[in-house]
């Protein structure tokens, strides 16, 4: 089970890094800028979570594999952005898996550091969406996750399954699996059906 | 006294959350985005302070009341933004009270975690203005507090009263009360009189 | 040696603060906004590093000299921005020294807090470039360091010399000196020769 989780985590990191690098290329950053966006999109959510729960130094700065994967994804995108754009559909599907893994792993880690149910759900969600938010802020854009698509809610659902399963003392492996399936499934459904949240209507 | 402080803190949270949600509505975010802005405007300053002084996990993630109040303020604003806009004057006055409470509570907590006078004043101010700064950055705007109105200085004054009072070993309850009055009073005066700081003139 | 390092650190803080204040003046912030940008440009990188390695509260909030230097630089720039603009060349050269000192000091501190080679290099670089990134985000601009000039790579080189020297158990004073010379020299060469990294070409 651990091997599966670690593998999914590294796959999620790679796909999130692709999303960051692609945003960097679209904004005509230089090679360094593309690598920074690649790294923060993949690891920014987890780094913020670790800083907030006091798990310092953050895991992404201690394990060279996360840095290496981000760099590989960034270099590939820098020279082959057109390829990634053509892969948009498969990348979006794998991104949904990464979202589930990040949300579940984030909620589990937050609980391990003593957070209660509400805090663990919020930090699980932050682990999933935080990297993309920093990515968008760094190119001076309103984060996509705040204005379109059903994305954060899926992360919240995955984290919620973890909190619920822990409260019921279910085995961690089953809880983690169910959380990932819930988040990823909801996200894939939302993509296929075009589900969105209502958008605010400013008063005239 | 404690009951008064907690009540003021929750009222301040609610009013700061309204300001965040209103910015979200004006930028046509979706429901999730409005709730995020509601939460960060109300709690972002305190969360940054707690991360910087090592008080992890942050209080706002451990006490469900702050999350609940932010969500209620966000939902209300999402569906009734016009009402909040019409309440602008009372909301601005209550916001001045919230600013005072946050600045004073932030300075006290920073002192309790070993910060010196300068650090405690800066972190008291950050507690008051930090949430609004994140709110504005998330919608890709220059934070209002950096370019208009006398707002941060009022927070700094409130935090300064706390630092001074502590140095003189005055009773905490009196010091806290005086700090809130100083900050809120200065802010209300500035609103009424239209006081502003000088604005930079770039060389031609 | 310590006296030299502290002096260089304070000089670097002053020059970084000038860069922040100048950006604030160009964006017509008010006096408070100019001082905030002055402070975050000078100290934001170190504050982020300290939060990430758990060195709380951050040094910049505990030592009043960093705050005082930032304020002096900010006030001077607020009233004499034209003078700073005319000094652009010397300021840019001193900035290169500051970059080297910050990157080296950051990598050393990260190592002292248990970071491995990759983490220490990244955090040394972040110490050098993080303040400028926050400065640019606060005026809703894409950070300069992500899109132009060879700047971050110089910081990375300085931090890399520290990591390498430590691995070889060389004396710290020599390692620190070599790291500063490597970073500052590379940066000055890049300015003089107009060296830049390749820029991303979005697919048509």
TrEMBL record, chains A, B, C:
Domain Glycine transporter residue range list: 7-79, 94-164
Top-level lineage group: Bacteria
Family matches, as InterPro entries: Gly_transporter
Transmembrane segments: 6-25, 32-52, 64-82, 94-112, 118-138, 150-168, 174-191
The keyword Heme is assigned to this record: no
Organism from which the protein derives: Arenimonas malthae CC-JY-1
Protein's recorded name: Glycine transporter domain-containing protein
Entry similarity comment: Belongs to the UPF0126 family.
Membrane topology: Multi-pass membrane protein
Name of one Pfam family that matches: Gly_transporter
GO cellular component, one term: plasma membrane
Alphabetical keyword list: Cell membrane, Membrane, Transmembrane, Transmembrane helix
Cellular localisation: Cell membrane
Keyword hit for Phosphoprotein: no
């Amino acid at each position: 089970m651990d091997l599966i989780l670690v593998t999914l985590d590294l796959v999620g990191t790679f796909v999130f890094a692709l999303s960051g690098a692609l945003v960097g290329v679209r904004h005509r950053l230089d090679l360094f800028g593309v690598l920074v966006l690649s790294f923060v999109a993949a690891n920014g959510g987890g780094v913020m979570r670790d800083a907030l729960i006091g798990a310092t130094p953050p895991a992404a700065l201690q394990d060279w594999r996360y840095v290496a994967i981000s760099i590989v994804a960034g270099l590939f995108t820098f020279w082959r952005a057109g390829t990634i754009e053509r892969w948009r559909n498969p990348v979006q599907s794998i991104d949904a898996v990464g979202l589930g893994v990040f949300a579940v792993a984030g909620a589990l880690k937050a609980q391990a550091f003593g957070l209660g149910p509400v805090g663990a759900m919020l930090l699980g969600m932050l682990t999933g969406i935080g990297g993309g938010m920093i990515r968008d802020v760094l190119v001076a854009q309103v984060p996509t996750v705040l204005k379109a698509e059903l994305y954060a809610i899926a992360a919240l659902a995955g984290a919620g399954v973890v909190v619920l399963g822990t409260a019921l003392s279910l085995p961690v492996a089953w809880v983690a699996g169910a959380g990932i399936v819930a988040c990823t499934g909801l996200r894939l459904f939302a993509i296929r059906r075009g589900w969105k949240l209502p958008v605010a209507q400013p008063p005239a």
